[in-house]
Structures are given as C-alpha cells and as structure tokens.
Design a protein that fits this description.
Layout lengths: L5 E7 L5 E6 L2 H9 L5 H4 L5 E8 L2 H13 L2 H8 L3
Antiparallel strand pairs: 1-2, 1-3
Length: about 80
Amino acid sequence: MADADHVVYVLECADGSLYTGYTTDLERRVAEHDAGEGAKYTRGRTPVELCYEEEYDSKSAAMSREYEIKQLTRGQKEELVGLE
C-alpha cells in the first residue's frame, strides 16, 4: 500500500459470495477475516481471498465508495473485481 491510509476492499469468500469492507490496514484486516475474527458475515465463510482494493486519501471518500460498491448488484461487483 502506498501513501493512502484508507482502503476499500472486496473479498471472495469460500462460498463464492463477495464481501466489501473498509480498513486502514489491509493486510491485518484480511488476516482477521481469514482467521474468523473479521466481520460476522465472513466468519462462517473462510477462507477468504482478497480480489479487489481501492486506496483513498480520506476516510470519507473511502466510506462513500464502500457504500457505492455495496449498492451494486452481484453481476456489477463481479465485473468490478474482474470475476466475470
């Protein structure tokens, strides 16, 4: 990760579902999800794989983008992260 402190990411869970989140430490956060210590949604869906990330300079920009991604359909998310 470069100078950007705020990251929006998409994980592909073991069941094939996609999870979108926000963090300031991507490596740590992905490890937490993988260990079953992340969000409730990912706990029963490990292992997870990071399939997409976007970096932002501000928390507000990152949170806005996280919300936008969460509003996308499954197909739109797949297109975004290159799973199509």
